[in-house]
Write a structure and sequence with these properties.
Blueprint (H helix, E strand, L loop, with lengths): L2 H6 L4 E4 L3 H5 L7 E2 L9 H5 L5 E5 L3 H12 L4 E6 H9 L3
Parallel strand pairs: 1-2, 1-3, 3-4
């Protein structure tokens, strides 16, 4: 799965797993904030989003944890890394 291409072509849903406070300080355009600690409880909601889901956070560590959780639950997703990277790829949209 080519994460950069998915972001540029707006093929999925971007979910930012940082805390609400971090998210409020800046986020990728159009992203949805679901903090990592809420991912397990909101799996049904996540399953309804346009897939693949691109997960991001501050550095890519929390989004990798969220990616593993979603994959275990059969949700098509990928780790987008830092929200700043996601934002950069969005700015290069095709």
């Amino acid at each position: 799965m080519n994460t950069e291409k998915i972001i540029k072509e707006k093929q999925g849903t971007i979910v930012d797993v940082r805390t609400r406070e971090e998210y409020t300080g800046g986020s990728a355009e159009g992203s949805i904030n679901i903090p990592l600690q809420e991912i397990s409880q909101r799996m049904e909601e996540l399953n309804k989003f346009k897939q693949p889901i691109i997960l991001c956070c501050a550095s890519g560590v929390r989004s990798e944890q969220a990616t593993r959780l979603l994959i275990q639950n059969g949700i098509e997703c990928c780790n987008g890394g830092s929200w700043l990277d996601v934002n950069f790829f969005q700015s290069q949209s095709l």
